[in-house]
Amino acid sequence: MNPTEEFLEHRELLFSIVYNVLGSVADTEDVLQETWLAWSGRSGVQNPRAYLVRVAVNAALARRTSISRRKEEYVGPWLPEPVVTPIDPVERSEAVSLAVLVVLETLSPLERAVFVLHEVFGYQLTEVAEILGRTPAAVRQLAHRAREHVQARRPRFVADPQVRLEVTQRFVDAVVGGDLDALLEVLAPDVTLWADGGGKARAAGLHPVLGRDRIGPLLIGDRVRRPVPSLDVRYRRVNGDPSALLLSGDTPFAVVVLDVEGNQVTGIYAITNPDKLTHVEI
């Protein structure tokens, strides 16, 4: 197998790992390009997969610094760049929900890399230590801290995909239709809205919005004040979860992902920053 074929064989794995470490499709593609350049200049590698993962993960860790700087200057809430695919009944085990990616943003870069490699992709901690160039003891400590942090902050309940889709449809129908009563019915009292416009698109302010009584009128009022012509809704999987893709004409306008408990929405993640919708597949 030639170097190009070898790299392409592992590209999907590399993309998934790096994306879960970075939360950015554009930065992930840059890291994969760096990985390819490092790979194409090598020969006689005994374990190509291990080599490629090590190079990609360490390149991703180096890139976290620039992402952190961009986040400090970002306007409003920052959400990961969504990965959108057609709805498929078979869930991919490495798909990390948007809500969990938001939690991963609060970890240190090393904690996040350890969590992704160990908890998501099933690498043994000794393998993770080798990838990161750390001692097994240090990696065990990182893994313990990361696991506790994520478990304490991740959504309390993961809804059945069909229920999640039905609730998402009810939510979107209420917002698009301007039906405040229907919207309040589907929202949990303590719902939180994260709206990522990046200062380049409509959003719900500079901070997350808390509570059904604030969010309901805000969403309906925004639709009345600033209607979007020719709004089309398509349901897709976003980071593995049934979600809504809103289109204005042929252009992605927003990606909406919901946390659902029972039959109500407990969290709303709305991404309208056009820079983060560039890679969205319609």
Output the structural class. alpha+beta
Strand content: 15-25%
Number of strands: 7
Profile the largest sheet.
Answer: 7 strands, mixed
| pLDDT averaged over residues | 90
- Work out the helicity level: 40-55%
Shape, please? globular
Low-confidence stretches: 89-93
Distance between the termini: 34 Å
Oligomer: single chain
Order of helices and strands: HHHEHHHHHHEEHEEEE
Alpha-carbon Rg, integer: 20 Å
Number of helices: 10
In the sheet with the most strands, the strands line up as 1-4-5-6-7-2-3
Describe it for me?
The protein has 282 residues and is an alpha+beta fold. The chain has ten helices and seven strands. It has helices at residues 3-22, 25-40, 48-72, 98-104, 109-120, 125-132, 136-153, 161-177, 180-186, 212-225, and strands at residues 84-85, 187-196, 209-210, 231-238, 241-248, 251-261, 264-271. The protein has a seven-stranded mixed sheet. A hairpin with a 2-residue loop joins strand 5 (241-248) and strand 6 (251-261). Helix 1 runs antiparallel to helix 2 (25-40) and helix 6 (125-132) crosses helix 7 (136-153). The longest helix has 25 residues, at 48-72. The protein is globular and about 65 Å long. The protein starts with a helix and ends in an 11-residue tail after the last strand.
Give the helices and strands, then pairings.
Blueprint: H1 3-22, H2 25-40, H3 48-72, E1 84-85, H4 98-104, H5 109-120, H6 125-132, H7 136-153, H8 161-177, H9 180-186, E2 187-196, E3 209-210, H10 212-225, E4 231-238, E5 241-248, E6 251-261, E7 264-271
Parallel strand pairs: 2-7
Antiparallel strand pairs: 1-4, 2-3, 4-5, 5-6, 6-7
Helix pairs in contact: 1-2, 1-3, 2-3, 5-7, 6-7, 8-9
